[in-house]
Structures are given as structure tokens and as C-alpha cells.
Amino acid sequence: MSEPLIEIKDLAFSYSARPILKSVNMTMSRGKVIAIMGGSGSGKTTLLRLIGGEVKPTAGCVKVAGQVVHKLGRNDLFRLRRKMGMLFQFGALFTDLSVFDNVAFQMREHTNLPESMIRDLVLMKLHAVGLRGAYHLMPAELSGGMARRVALARSIALDPMLIMYDEPFTGLDPISLSVIGSLIRRLTDALGMTSIVVTHDVQESLKIVDYVYFLADGVITAHGTPAEVKESVTPFVHQFVHGEEDGPVPFHYPAEMYQEDLRLETHFA
Amino acid sequence: MPKRIITSIQAIGHRVIDGIWRLGCAARFFVLVLLKSMTSFLRFTLVIREIYFVGVLSLIIILVSGLFVGMVLGLQGYETLQKYGSESAVGTLVALSLVRELGPVMSALLFASRAGSAITAEIGLMKATEQLSAMGMMAVDPIARIVAPRFWAGVISMPLLAAMFSVMGVFGGYLVAVVFIGVDEGSFWSSMQNAVDFRYDIVNGVIKSCFFGVAVTAIAVFEGFDAPPTAEGVSGATTRTVVTSALAILGLDFVLTSFMFRGVD
Fold first, then answer.
1. Which residues lie across from A84 on neighbouring strands?
2. How many A/B residue pairs have CB atoms within 8 Å?
């Protein structure tokens, strides 16, 4: 078995005194699509930021391709990031650049390729996401789904070994949602890269991923293949996969006793 | 009551400490911008593009304001000077007021409102929409690629805009004094030529505007980069850019003037 692309060991992270991740352990193999699921504020995006080296862990470590990310110097970190792509929640396209220039951005920054070759490569990347005809548009002229497809084309510009998707399905109509889902799967297989998808969208993501991790209370509470997850009887996973209102994640935010809050006892005493 | 006093003293203390902390952050950021400026000089097209946005697009407001300020100076100068029979000195008054003070100061204030606020809003919005994070994740340093070119564009544009403001002001003074009122054209220009010294007046004015350019753009890029990534945060940062820049310009102007013009030759 080949060496895993990402190894996360006893990872902990806090914002000021508030712990976000307590002790996370994960292993991600090359060439797979891996989903990280969990409620809002469970630390999924923070986990991606730790993998990308945007923030440093308070304990533990993240190893990407054998390198401990938080111990890398700035130049080594940037060298590693050239092999990574990240798709932000709403695309994060550069609003002052056209679709073409957005996709060409990294090629112009990091390579000395002639402009004619950059043009061909950009059109190929845009063709892969079905937007070759939109190369001349500005980001403001794109729909949410199109913007995310352009951002996807931009993130595969330098053929990375790893792409991280932060909530790629949020706010999309069913057609765009399914297009983005199948693109993630197809591009991962075609380019031989690894994809990490942070998402809430259980139904769409279970169709395309190879493995799922559930994150809650700062730890991995469950993991498995989509088939295992669907059959799981673990209360949290069951509640999450079936979207049940109440369960280990309570409907009510912690509060005082309802009767006490309404002062029923005082009134009727 | 004593508790309330303690709380207010604590609040003042917090504000002072926060202010000093922010000043430290701004100083570190400024040094970082200078250290990462090499890309701006190696790829000067990045700076030229920004000069268009902060300099060329500010020309209209600078030129029109310069013209009106010069016209008002001409009117007011003539009004006072003619009482003493020295209306021919109106050229001197217009030119010296403009190149020493009004040119650099007024153009810097206008530049802060027009270009400084735009720089802050642009960088703040790029941060709020995760464009800066996306750039960082693409292994491109946002300070080198986004901040430094805007900073240098501001520093280069400011003295040029101030010079154009002064030129338009002198023209405005000429229009009012010579064309409309009828002051002798020869004495208007010759009194100006005699009184204005290139090194003492013009060079000092240019030096002032260079300082203002550094101050305004440094404040604008810092406020944008430091803005909380929300609509409210960006709007607050834009306001702070205009207010802080105005105070910095006026404060710096006093300090520079006291060093430059001592009233002796």
C-alpha cells in the first residue's frame, strides 16, 4: 500500500481560549475523494486551513506528502501550496480579472510559459468544467454555480496533487449541485489527485466520495465508506445522515429550565 | 460609584493599549510592505495599472478643485492687496500659498477621500470575499501582489497630483486677477517669478506631498488589510482611512512646515 498523502495526528487547535479541534486523527490515501462532515462551527473549515498551513496547530501535526506543514518555512510552504488547490465556499474569484485571467493567474505567477501556451491550457481547463465559451466574462456576470466551476478550473490550473473544497454545494440549485459533484469525482479520477470535500450536503456527497469522516466536538466521532455510513447506527451519524431534528445534537440551545424562564412557579405559587 | 470610576478608567486603559497595539501592527505591516516591494519594481506594469486607478482617475477632482481654489485665492488676495495698492503682488500670494501649503495639503486631502478610501474598500472587500486567502493558498503573497503595488502607485501619484493642483490653482488665480479683474499681466507673472524660489518653495512643497503620499497610502492599505471581513468592518475601515489620513496630513504638515520654513533666508 502506498504512503498516504495526508496524515493528521492528535491535532488540536484553539481560537484564543476556545478549543475548536481537540484531538483529530485521520489518514487520507492518494487518488480518493474524502468527505469531512459535521455541523456548523464544528471546525471543518479550520481543518482545511490547518492542512493548507494558513493557521498553526496548538498541538499535534498535519503531514502532507511526508512534510509537517506547520514546521515548513515560508518558501517551502509556498512550494507545497503550488501542489495544492483550494475551492472556497463562494469561489473567491478575483473580481477585477476576467474568467480567462482568473484561470491563467497561477500560470502567469509561477511559470514562464509563453502566452500562447497559457491560452491553450486555460481553454483546456475551462473546457473541462464546461465553461470554455465563458472565458471573456467577468466574475460579476456569472451565476453562483458557474463561479464555482471557474474556481474549480482555476484550482486545477497547475495540476495539483490535492484539492480542498470548502462547502462546494452551498447555495446551488439541484442542477449546478449535481454538476459540481460529478466534476469533483471526474477531475479527481482523470487527474489522479486527492480531493477533500468539507460539506453539509449528505445526499450529494455520499454519491461521489470514497470515504467519510464525521467531526463533532473537536474529534472524529465516526468514519467509514458511504455504504457503512448509510447503515450506521451510531446516534450522531444516524441523526446527521437522516437529518433528524433532535438527537445527540439537541434542537434546543442550552438554557435554564423552561418553567423557570417563564416564571411559572412564582406566578402560581 | 467607585466601581463605575474604576470601570471607566479601565475602559480608557483598554483604548490606549488597543491604540498602541494597532500602531505597532501598522508599523510592522509598513515594514513588511517595504520588504515585499521587489515584485512591484520587477513587474512595474502592476504599479502602472494602479497608478491609473489612484492617479489618473483622481485627476478630474484634483484639477477642478485646484482651479477653484486658485480662483478664490485670486479674488481674496486682490480684495485685500488692493487696499494697500499692491494688487500686482496677487501673483505672489497665489503661487506661494499654493506651492507651499494648499497644493500639497488640499490635494492630499482630496486624494485620501477619492483614492485612499477606494484602496481600503477594495482590499477590505477582497479580504471579505476570501480573495486574499485564495491568493495565499495559490502560493502568491497578497502583500507583494496586491498591497505593495497600490502603495507605490499612491506614493508616485501624490506629488504629481499636487503639482497639477498647484498649476491649475495658479491658472485659476490668473483667470480671476488678470482676465476678469484686470490686474497687469506682466506684474502678475514677474512678481510671482521673483518671489517663488525653486528649492525653498517648490522642492519643499514636493517633499511635503511625498510625505503625504506615503502617509495616506500606508494608512489606506493597512486599514483595508486589517478590516474585519464584514460589510460593517469594511465601511468602518473606509471611514477610518479618511479620518486618520486627514489628521495625519494636517499634523505632518505642521511638523514639516516648522522644519522647512523658518522665515529667514
1. A162
2. 48
**Inter-helix orientation angle A115-128/A99-110, to 10°:** 130
Q: What is the CATH number of the domain that holds A53?
A: 3.40.50.300
pTM of the model as a whole = 0.85
Measure the CA–CA gap between A243 and A245, rounded to whole angstroms. 6
pLDDT means over runs of 10, chain B (265 residues): 87 93 94 90 91 94 96 93 87 92 95 95 94 91 94 95 95 94 90 89 93 96 94 95 96 92 62
* Domain boundaries of chain B, sorted by first residue: 36-260
Q: How far is B139 from chain A (nearest CA, A)?
A: 5
Its ipTM equals: 0.81
How many angstroms away from the CA of B129 is the closest CA of chain A? 6
Q: In degrees rounded to 5, what are phi and psi of residue A10?
A: 45, 40
| C-alpha dihedral, A201 to A207 to A212 to A218, nearest 10° | 0
Residues of A with CB under 8 A from a CB of B: 52, 54, 78-79, 81-82, 84-86, 88-90, 92-95, 105-106, 109-110
Residue of B nearest to A158 (CA): B138
In DSSP terms, A121 is beta-bridged to: none
Q: Which residue range forms the structural domain that includes residue A137?
A: 6-232
How many domains does one find in chain A?
Answer: 1
The candidate with the shortest Cα–Cα distance to B220, out of B194, B192, B244, is B244
Residue B1 has a pLDDT of 63
- Is the Cβ of B39 closer than 8 Å to some Cβ of chain A? no
Q: Which three cell numbers stand for residue B206?
A: 514636493
Which whole-number Å values give the CA distances from B41 to A110, B47, B76, B112, B217, in the listed order? 17, 8, 45, 24, 17
Residue A253 resides in a domain: no
Q: Which residues of A37-65 are buried (b: 16+ CB within 10 A; e: fewer)?
A: bbbeebbbbbbbbbbbbbeebeebbbbbb
